[in-house]
Amino acid sequence: MRKALVILLLVMALPCGRSFASSETSSANNYQQANGLLASKRYQEAIPLFKSTLANPLQKVPVSDVYTRIGHSYYGLGLYQNAIEAYQAALSGQDREAQPGTRYWIGFCYFLLGQDEQATREFLLIPELYPTAGMWVGTAYYWAGRSCERRGLKNKAAEYYKKAGGKGKSTQGRFAIKKAEEVKRR
Predict the structure, then answer these.
(1) pLDDT of res. 172
(2) Gap between the Cα atoms of 143 and 129, Å rounded
(3) Among 42, 63, 94, which residue terminates a domain?
(4) Residue 126 falls inside a structural domain
(5) Mean pLDDT of 17-39
(6) pTM for the complete prediction?
(7) Number of structural domains, the chain?
(8) What is the SS3 assignment for 98?
(9) Which terminus of the chain has fewer Cβ atoms in its 10 Å neighbourhood, N or C?
């Protein structure tokens, strides 16, 4: 009797096991195909495939990675508000070292939407939350400067450009410092 019960339980479990393996394989195929479409700039086709992997997440691919790729797809289509939402969803599950880049894309989407106050806030979160994030910090200060400049906040723009320039050792640093001086003169 006990042996029959064990066999019955195993037989009942097998279809579920096959179904899970099948859905995992299908999800992996969708994810791989979506990545190819993203690389080919076929964003509209990539989005539903990425979203299908959210319905059946892959064990080896963080959900935050899928949301980031959805954000990149929406960005490529010029649907910046949708991109912001996807990037924000990605932030919650991302490793800390990936977050400055995602925050940058959120800020840049706000900038492209003409929402300069929100863009400035997002860009300034990068040096505040991730002060050791290297190039992301300088890049964030630069774009915070651009956002302030568009709003007519010359002193703030010059301040952020100067911070972006740092010691002016790189070409980008010298450019940002020059930009700070130009803004002050206007």
Answers:
(1) 87
(2) 16
(3) 94
(4) yes
(5) 77
(6) 0.84
(7) 2
(8) helix
(9) N
104 falls within a domain: no
58 assigned to some structural domain: yes
More confident residue, 9 or 131: 131
pLDDT digits 0-9 by tens, 32-52:
999 999 999 999 999 999 999
Is 26 domain-assigned? yes
Instruction: Check: CB of residue 172 under 8 Å from CB of residue 161.
Output: no
Q: Which of 38, 64, 94 is the last residue of a domain?
A: 94
Please state, in angstroms and rounded to a whole number, the distance separating the CA atoms of residues 42 and 28.
19
Structural domain range at position 26: 21-94
Same domain (yes/no): 67, 133: no
Counting Cα atoms < 13 Å in the Cβ hemisphere of 80 gives: 13
Q: 116-120: which pairs have CB atoms within 8 A and are 24 or more residues apart?
A: 116/147, 116/148, 116/150, 116/151, 117/147, 117/151, 119/143, 119/144, 119/147, 120/144, 120/147, 120/148, 120/151
- pLDDT of 102: 98
> Is residue 131 pLDDT above 90, yes or no?
yes
